[in-house]
Amino acid sequence: MATVQEKSMFVLWFFETKSVITTQRRFRTTYKKDPPSDNSMRRWLTQFQETGSVLHRKGAGRPSTSQENVDRIQETFTRSPRKSTRRDCQEHCVQDPCALP
Fold it and tell me: Per its UniProt record, what InterPro entries does this chain match (predicted)?
């Protein structure tokens, strides 16, 4: 896993040389370790061009549940309070029962 400094230097070197191979060689000689894969490096470039940063994007947090799903599930448990959560989620195609409020 590359550090933020290593990613930043890669982006800087790439814009200087315009070559992934040359940048990988420079990475190897500077940091004395194997460079990350081409795909990783291209992802860093894309991320830098889109966001201006090489920092990892944080997730959006807890997945949202539509009010329609909440109402439907509450209605189901009002009708059948002894029904298991797992069974109801399987019937209603809810991926993660923990995502419910």
Answer: DUF4817
